Amino acid sequence: MRYDARRGVILSREDGEGSQEATQPRILRSFAPLRMTTIGIATLFLAPRIALLFARQPFFDELFTRWISARSFEGILQALRYDSGPPLYYFIIHAIGDPPILVIRSVSLLFSAVPLIWLLKTRRYGAAALLSVFPPAVLFAVDARSYALCAMFAALGIFALESEKPYAAAWLFLAAAYSHYYGALFFPLILCGDRLQPVLGRLKPAAILILFAPGAWLALHQPRESMAWLSVFFHYPDTLFAKPPEWLLVIGAAVVVLAMYRLERYAAMTFIPLVLAVALGIYFPLRFESMIAVPLVLWFAQIARREIVALLVAVGMAICVFGIIDHAERPVDAYRDAAMHARTLPGPVIASGYLYLETITLRPATAFPAEQALHPGWRATATSGSDLPSGTFIWVGELRAPELAIIEASRRVTPLYV
């Protein structure tokens, strides 16, 4: 054995052997399997997300993200008075400029990669592999919405609690809540920790969460209708991710039951936000699971046998492949199809209802009624044709929209595309 000062490593040679492998630095040989594991998990993480990044069509909520993020910081806050959600994600996208949907999705992908990097850094490879193929985490990692940002802050807050840094955790959960209201459901986790501490000691960092008062005020002044759609949570959201075959669901459920045989701190970090979401009536499948992905995979990876973890990874990957293929084969959405057709038509364009937002992402258009332009995420209904332009124009809207009846009362209508 000898020390190579120039290379700064200890070299070793077995007695009587002169193989090239024996002369390699031991530190390099010991890290080689870890490096390959990291590369493998990173590939497992990126492959389904990049495929979905391009396979999934832009959908209405993503178009709304781009519309509201293009406004000023003050304009974003004003628009949120008529919608739901906090402003942090929109502020970040606004600071980037006016990026296309693909770029906004890529930003979400960067946010989603942060918890994975932390898991790999701390060598929790089982949890990292499970996170890589967890279908809700895959889906919302490339979603031009705030879920990936909120999940990132929530995960970093949990990592801070692991390190017994409750003050850092409080700031991170606060950032999660300003990204998406789901983040506020993690506030009670401040009281969770490795070591038992006096309640008052845990309440001190929890006082930081008072800074969410402006966010709570905004939430209380947003229209109740903006959250009403959450009441249908018992329906599987096929539009988000295709429902996998029954046999795959049965296998997945059975493996999950096997993996959940013991409760511990990560189980509490998973169930506390879940119970609160259900109790408050704000739970929605897939979207919410993407929020609790990190504590869930940490729980499974800690208590489950390696064989169970491997089977969970296989089931998760199968569900992801099924969902990605479904997205790639879906026909163009009818609203998107109409807007794409209107893009090629000459003359002024008037758009109504949800077709207004779809249309203005592809070409200039005037809202009918004018109130539709104030907040295109909601449908404004025209009551008269007083704000219609003079002369000939192209109208884009639903076939049975009330605006069409108003137009027909004063104009001759020639269908161009139905």
Amino- and carboxy-terminal Cα gap: 81 Å
Q: Main β-sheet: number of strands, strand sense, barrel status?
A: 3 strands, parallel
Topology order in helix (H) and strand (E) letters: EEHHHHHHHHHHHHHHHHHEHEEH
Structural class: mainly alpha
| Inertia-based shape | globular
Strand order of the largest sheet: 4-3-5
Please tell me the overall pLDDT. Answer: 85
Count of DSSP E strands?
A: 5
Q: What is the number of helices? A: 19
Query: Over all CA atoms, what is the radius of gyration?
Result: 26 Å
Helix-residue proportion: 55-70%
Low-confidence stretches: 1-24
Beta-strand proportion: under 5%
Characterise this structure.
The chain has 418 residues and is mainly α. The protein contains 19 helices and five strands. It has a three-stranded parallel beta sheet. The chain has a two-stranded antiparallel ribbon with strand order 1-2. Helix 18 links the parallel strand 3 and strand 4. Helix 1 runs antiparallel to helix 5 and helix 1 packs parallel to helix 16. The relative contact order is 0.10.
